[in-house]
Design a protein that fits this description.
Layout (H helix, E strand, L loop, with lengths): L1 H25 L1 H15 L3 E6 L3 H15 L2 E6 L2 H11 L7 E4 L2 H9 L8 H6 L12 E13 L24 E3 L5 H12 L1 H14 L1 E2 L3 H9 L5 E5 H11 L6 E4 L10 E8 L6 H11 L2 H7 L21 H4 L6 H4 L3 H9 L4
Parallel strand pairs: 1-2, 1-3, 5-6, 5-7
Antiparallel strand pairs: 3-9, 4-7, 4-8, 4-9
Helix pairs in contact: 1-2, 3-12, 4-5, 7-8, 7-15
Bound molecules: fe (ii) ion.
């Protein structure tokens, strides 16, 4: 018992120290926001987060949150689709308080099943207007855009198609790589909305006939860099991260942008939400509030070339302005669970 009391007292002392440090470093506003966190720590609570977002990004956000609040987070990493299936199976008995999905459709599918609680209004209001679910059940944790990665030794930027629909053409047989995860279903949804279901299905079938499917975007990027394939459909951050680490000039690859406003110029997001079944609603909401805070977003974009979801945070990576390029009429909030995109992909034999 004495040990327990000492333990709690020591933790409280530490949290006061941390608050003082934050006061000195960040000013009064940050200290005020840290206060409710300190109370949570006194209750010795731990959150459980299922995360399909990249492991390093998740670790950095969680470490920053724990440092700021004293609240521990137990993370279960996995693929977003597998974690979403697990959450659907566990239902109200899930040990998870939160889910951070690498793709918004996986979490939107849980919202459709009624498993998510509404995200606090202040959290939703902190991010750019289209970076949240239309029904307020999830909020974006980071953003990226679809692009075409190409091998400069095999093809020139000028020879690549302007519109995403033209990439599945027989002209590019055995040259185009794709992966049906991480932004792909969002892209198919945008195609369906902007071009119609028939064109989207024809595109998927042609992609199956003419392209090569990779199990993940990491493998796709390596294949194009190695010259196995001339180009591939992917998200920007794989190449932008690699370019910062290795130097853009040393790489065989570069990013090509399709036409502005084209359905291929799509912005897609990672997305986080709170499970309705959580017994720690207030604390789970605080985690989401931290995720979209300036401090949380700085931690998220520190190691991966994804975009912050709110104003006032700068990525350390050299990224083009999203307002210059990502102007598809379809926004992350429009994508939903991408159910029809999955169905069409199945019909085309891709999944
Ligand atoms: Fe990814």
């Amino acid at each position: 018992m004495v040990d327990k009391i000492f333990d709690v007292t020591a933790k409280l002392a530490m949290s006061r120290r941390e608050i003082l440090q934050r006061t000195l470093l960040l000013g009064g506003a940050a200290a005020a926001s840290a206060l409710p966190m300190a109370h949570a720590q006194a209750a010795d609570e731990t959150l459980v987060l299922y995360s399909g977002e990249h492991r390093e990004t998740t670790e950095q956000l969680v470490a920053a949150f724990t440092k700021a609040s004293g609240v521990k987070v137990t993370v279960r990493n996995g693929s977003s689709s597998e974690l979403a299936s697990q959450l659907a199976e566990e239902g109200a008995n899930s040990p998870a308080d939160l889910f951070w999905s690498e793709q918004s459709p996986n979490i939107a599918a849980l919202a459709d099943k009624g498993l998510l609680a509404p995200v606090d209004a202040d959290t939703l209001n902190a991010v750019y207007p289209s970076f949240k679910a239309a029904d307020g059940t999830w909020v974006a944790g980071s953003a990226r855009y679809r692009a075409v990665l190409y091998n400069k030794k095999m093809i020139s930027d000028a020879d690549l198609p302007v519109h995403i629909l033209d990439y599945a053409d027989a002209k590019w047989k055995d040259k185009i790589a794709f992966c049906v995860k991480d932004g792909f279903m969002e892209q198919v949804t945008a195609l369906m909305i902007l071009e119609g279901k028939d064109k989207a299905l024809a595109w998927l079938k042609a992609l199956k006939d003419n392209g090569r499917q990779y199990p993940g975007n990491g493998a796709l990027v390596k294949a194009v860099e190695a010259g196995e394939m001339a180009f591939g459909l992917t998200n920007n951050y794989y190449w932008d991260t690699m370019a910062k680490e290795q130097g853009a000039d040393t790489l065989n690859t570069a990013l090509h942008l399709v036409a502005k406003g084209d359905s291929g110029a799509l912005v897609n997001v990672t997305a986080a939400g709170v499970l309705k079944s959580t017994k720690k609603m207030e604390l789970a909401q605080k985690f989401l509030a931290y995720l979209v805070s300036e401090e949380g977003q700085s931690a998220v974009v520190a190691s991966i070339a994804e975009y912050p979801v709110r104003p006032g945070v700068t990525s350390p990576f050299k990224l083009l302005s999203l307002s210059d390029y990502g102007q598809s009429k379809v926004t992350p909030g429009d994508i939903g669970a991408a159910t029809e995109a999955f169905a069409l992909s199945r019909e085309a034999g891709l999944v």
